[in-house]
Batch of 3 targets.
Target 1
Amino acid sequence: MEHPDQYRGKEVVVLGLAKSGVQVAKVLHERGAAVTVNDKKERDQSPEASELESLGISVICGGHPEGLIHPGVSLVVKNPGIPYSVPPVQKALELGIEVVTEVEVAYHLCAAPMIGITGSNGKTTTTTWVGRMLDAAGMSPIVAGNIGTPLCQAAQEAHADNWMVVELSSFQLKGTKAFRPKVGCLLNVAETHLDYHGGMEDYIASKAKLFANQEPSDTAVLNWDDPVCRELVPYIKAAILPFSMTEELVQGVFVRPAFVPDTDDGLKRMIVYRDYSESETEIAAVDSIGLPGRFNVENALAACGIAIAAGADPAGLAEVLANFRGVEHRLEYVADKAGAAYYNNSKATNSKATSMALASFRKPVVLIAGGLDRGSDYMELLPVLGGIKALVALGQTKDKLAAVAGMAGVKRIISVDNGESAAAVLQEAVREASALAEAGDIVLLSPACASWDMFTSYEERGRIFKEAVHNL
């Protein structure tokens, strides 16, 4: 797309009335575009509509009317979660009308260099961590997008001496054209969101758009332990800064000694940065990191790499690594009840995230899992489920998960589906898990599934879980 200033007097359609849609509509309206906002929700479910109409923006609720998209429309900006299969998007593509997401609009507005962070797992934790690191380094970060201030709003407020730190989903990146982050990071790639993308090829291609417009003066931070990340290297023009838990790198951020399965307990490990001249800085001891779990070591490596690429001194990162205590719904400690520790990992919306969470504990785990059925068979969980004490399954995938747990040899499997509401089902699951847990055990909500079969979001699911735990 062109700069938003170039749409004066032109018709623009914004699909979706969420925070990003409201901000995009305001931005384009302020620049003289004739903006129409459309949302399939009914008017009484769209409180934002009145505010936009008071500004002179046209709002259509209750469905997608015939004629909404026509040859006179110059641009469509869609909410990232709206599939490309919906009629207005399909019509726009047929007519050759550009379809973008808020990220593209914000990029054109932003005076600050941008850091884009994506991956199947760990995005929010890493993004928040980077913000803390840059703040400690006096680099004036603005954390925006999926977390923090809506991206378009933050982009208009940013100055050249800020750094814009942005968590990005595959949905958002798929709708970008010119977007070029100064630093881009791909954390990992796992099988997820296949109902939206139609397959892994489109999912990976959407993630890879993070690097599509980067130049040699930019930096791509890549997980060297992830084969998909490494396969992208020939297509990336930016300077590559890798990170690894398992390999001592010629240049990059790594753990010394490396993590080796079943052979590395008790070893003293250090996070090390080695620059292009092979000069080294020992950043911090792995056991000083403030978050539990091997996967959080990986997030820490990524955050260090990103911060260093942006100009932070690697010698100054240790305090932030030690003091950061994580983000809500990401392996969040909730409480101890009768000697068992309860953890909320509601953000684990795919099998890999749940596998990583289970690998974080050495104590017996009673796992609560299940949710929206996106077609996965959950066989990826087979190796890790064999080590759990019990499974409490719920949601659309409860039978699939119970079947895989049975194959893994789990002896105690309970399916919960007898509540009058989603909240009642989850509360019952917590009670069942509590009955199975003994002193010294872990009770872990790590669903391996999205929440939308029962809840409006993973945040709602996590909050209800925490309330149920506190009410035991």
Target 2
Amino acid sequence: MYKVLIIEDDHKLRNLIGQYLAKWSFLPVLVENFEFIDQIALKENPHIILLDINLPGNDGFYWCSKLRQLSDVPIIFISSRSQSMDIVIAMNMGGDDYIQKPFSLEVLVAKMNAVLRRSNFFQHSEKDILTVGELTLNLQNSFVESKGKKVSLTKNEFQILYLLMKKTGQIISRDEIMRALWEDEQFIDDNTLTVNVNRLRKKLEEIGVANAITTKKRQGYLLQ
């Protein structure tokens, strides 16, 4: 049974989500104190977090950033905001997915299951390292290293780099990456992939690997 932390200030929606998820064998934990979300997350140690953006006091972006300093637990944003920039910020802060209100509870469960499958696959499928040129990707802790410098990757960044490294020198289409990440393209905002790739590029630059990922117009991405 997966424990899910529901951080939503609308008590009716919070309870509705909790009741529905319980029917799907999730263990919902409803957050009602929005001052110490990071401490609650540490105490509860959930498998996944549903996080609203518009919260009393600090917003969801702030709490996502704080949570990312403590854990790589999957985070799905749930928000009434529909601007592309809100989605970009959410993903840049370390969110794994984004669903806009009002939403279907069936779609929410599908997104949660997809995120959890990705998380479990990369936690349990391989216990080794992947090396391509000067890049070394640790498949256990999601760190990428080059020449003694290393940086931690989010789950999405890790999976994108994993795919590119497994097929070094080959063009990987955006569709193929999205299928691998989210398993069902109908739930995907294409902009989300661009955000994750750009964020991955910046992290590679931090460890001295610039221009490793090449964009092939109308084709996809290539790791050289």
Target 3
Amino acid sequence: MLDQKTIDTVKATVPVLEKHGEAITKRFYQMMFDNHPELLNIFNHANQKQGKQQRALANTVYAAAKYIDNLEAILPVVKQIAHKHRSLQIKPEHYPIVGEHLLLAIKDVLGDAATDDIIEAWGNAYQVIADVFIQVEHEMYEEAAAKKGGWDGFREFVVDKKVKESEVITSFYLKPKDGGPLSSFKAGQYVSIRVNIPGEKNTHIRQYSLSDSPGKDYYRISVKREATNELPDGKVSNYLHDTINPGDALELTAPAGVFVLDTTTEEAVVLISGGVGLTPMINMLNTVAEKQPNRKVTFIHAAINSTTHAMHDHVKELAQTSNTVDYYLVYEKPTDADRAAQRFDKEGYIDLPWLKSVIDDNNAVFYFCGPTPFMRAINQALTAWGVPEDKINFEFFGPADQL
């Protein structure tokens, strides 16, 4: 428990964190990686370079300070982060390293303004926050290992099949190398994949949504090739596309994530995806079709055009063979062939007037995933339509950002 003086001191730093949070977290990562370069084998270099990780950590530290006397208020955020930590194999021994360098960064950025009282208060507060994460993650590690077909750490999977879905997206069908059973998962969850790329100093870990429904004898991930492998965000996707073939092995951690389809209800569901954000949506769609065939589902996908659009034939067939599945396509820049074949329902972008024209009413539960600007637009549209906050569900690829 924290005493009142510590709580008051930490809460008093909230305005400072709001102003200097990203500068502190940027300095934090610099100092930590300088002193512990082995942690570069865990953290996503692309998110570091783009500032996403620094921004996400700054938001988390800010929230922790604001709610230091009521950490239960941020428990949903804690659980979301803890899922990612478990998937990345963050362990209790990592927390003292993080705490030490967070305090050093606060002192370094704030200078004399970071008094001994502030540093002491934040040291005490960090320990309480770290203990919450460690306990939540401990339970997640135990749960993942105890499930039938579950495991702890990384497990080798063999690529059973590799399927090109579009000009930019390829699916990999993965089966356990040990021939053992597969752990179950919830529609919408992801796995972490660790690769050793020849010529790279560090291992790379990336998280990919499972793109097919549970209950199969394989896991499927569908990977978008990033523009170039010269940048950190393209290294793993290009390696998978160009180098990994059937018969090759990949290391996976057990499925994780809180962005999951609620299958305890039969209420209408709307799935909206942009680009490769369709991967968890396809999983959810397949799950509804297989497990809840009478549940009304509207599947809306936005893509540049048919050359980048993956899994169209699969979704089209589901819609044609089911009375409960509606399917709509929005192409930003349709090709001449797209126009001739009338492959899409709207040109440009998804907006609220169009959503209202294809969905009967807003009395449904909404799930969406895609690039951050896309999700921001969808979130704003649904909010303007009066969709309750508890009916709006979304997933970021990478560290959580602000919508």
